[in-house]
Amino acid sequence: MKSNKKIKITESQYKRLVSEQADEKGSINYNMFIDDYGTLNLSYRKTDTLPDLSNTTATSIVANYCRLKTLPLAEHLPQSLEDLTLINNDITEVDMKGYRNLPNLFIINLKENPIQWINWEEIENMPELGRVIGVGDADNFDVNIANQYRDDPDNRLMID
């Protein structure tokens, strides 16, 4: 029986573990870091980009307090992804190009990022997306678009 107990490790322990798990090409099998709930937690890893996670089985990716500068490329995310949480990073632009190819993505949490610009066209073309959190202070936050979704009788998308 699998244990649901989470193990906390230091940054240096994480780096050593990752380096030990890398194959001959330097690729890492991040599936070994996914917990019993399908979450891959990469929080507090000081990096401005996430690695290619497209070959993982994660349904949730959490990368809080990492100093990320941009959203991960859509082609670097797993098709199984339902929830992407990137709280308190340095993301200034939300360009979700290609994210519509992630059929299960439902929630994106970008709270506490200095977001200045959002690509609304991409968000509007994501029929499965249910909630985008933390974009309300962006310079080009479009209240009309947000209200359109808030007033949508199908409650398809919540933006705040």
CA-to-CA gap between the ends? 40 Å
Tell me the number of structural domains.
1
**Uncertain stretches of 5 or more adjacent residues:** 1-6
Largest sheet: 6 strands, parallel
CATH class: Alpha Beta
What is the CATH superfamily? Ribonuclease Inhibitor
Choose one word for the global shape: globular
Instruction: Give the SSE order as H and E letters.
Output: HEEEEEEHEHE
Overview in brief:
With 160 residues, the protein is of the alpha/beta class. 15% of the residues lie in helices and 13% in strands. Strands 1-2-3-5-7-8 form a six-stranded parallel β-sheet.
Polypeptide structure, described:
It is a single chain. The chain has 160 residues and is of the alpha/beta class. The protein has a single domain, classed as Alpha-Beta Horseshoe (Leucine-rich repeat, LRR (right-handed beta-alpha superhelix)). It is built from three helices and eight strands. The strands form two sheets. Strands 1-2-3-5-7-8 form a six-stranded parallel beta sheet. Strands 4-6 form a two-stranded parallel sheet. Strand 7, helix 3 and strand 8 form a beta-alpha-beta unit. The longest helix has 11 residues. The chain starts with 10 loop residues before the first helix and ends with a strand. The relative contact order is 0.11. The N terminus is likely disordered.
